[in-house]
Write a structure and sequence with these properties.
By secondary structure, the protein is mainly α. It has one domain. Helices cover 81% and strands 0% of the residues. It contains 5 helices and no strands. The longest helix has 87 residues, at 120-206.
């Protein structure tokens, strides 16, 4: 059970990484289309929570990017406890949790570029990015789980087939051994009968 949980957690983190990559791409596309620079919310949160203020824009960009990837990858772990929930409730629950966590995270940002100070259009695009993340992470998680399950099933099938072959080989060996034993007994019987006949014939001639 522990191995299964660790395997699911590893798959969930990989799915979170895939979702973060997709979200990063969608944000880059939005920035390219609108020509507007994305707010560095993660850096704002870190600065507000720790009291450390990055001195340069490059420092804020680096900090924001690092936290963005760490947070997005780790958030994929939330898929594990949702394993027992059927679709589409599972995906919708994950999306709601992801967006809710994002709002809670963003509420810590007390900077001019905090999402709470942005307009509805900007908040709407933020939801779309979270939708891209949640959808990609869920698809990746389901796909990886199915692939792992397929490998396990294939391994079980190969094991079953090998056991069947071994049983067939064992059965064939037993049958051949029984045939050899029966043939030997029959040959001994024929030899014995022939010897008896020859003896009897010889006795008759002598008489």
């Amino acid at each position: 059970m522990a191995d299964q949980t660790l395997r699911s957690l590893g798959i969930a983190l990989a799915a979170g990484f895939a979702g973060t990559a997709a979200m990063t791409l969608s944000q880059a596309i939005e920035q390219r289309l609108t020509g507007q620079r994305r707010p560095r919310t993660a850096a704002s949160v870190a600065e507000n929570a720790t009291g450390v203020d990055t001195e340069t824009q490059e420092g804020r960009d680096t900090l924001s990017s690092s936290l963005h990837w760490l947070y997005g990858t780790g958030l994929g772990a939330a898929l594990v406890p949702l394993d027992g929930v059927s679709e589409p409730a599972r995906s919708l629950t994950f999306l709601g949790g992801v967006y809710g966590a994002g709002l809670a995270w963003e509420s810590l940002a007390d900077k001019p570029d905090a999402p709470s100070r942005r307009d509805y259009a900007s908040m709407g695009s933020d939801f779309v990015h979270h939708l891209v993340y949640a959808g990609t992470a869920t698809l990746a998680y389901n796909g990886l789980k199915a692939a792992m399950q397929g490998d396990q099933d294939a391994g079980s099938t190969r094991s079953l087939f090998s056991s069947w072959n071994e049983d067939q080989d064992r059965s064939g060996s037993d049958t051949l051994s029984a045939a050899n034993t029966t043939g030997g007994d029959n040959a001994a019987g024929v030899t014995g009968a022939g010897t008896a006949t020859t003896t009897s014939t010889g006795a008759g001639i002598n008489a």
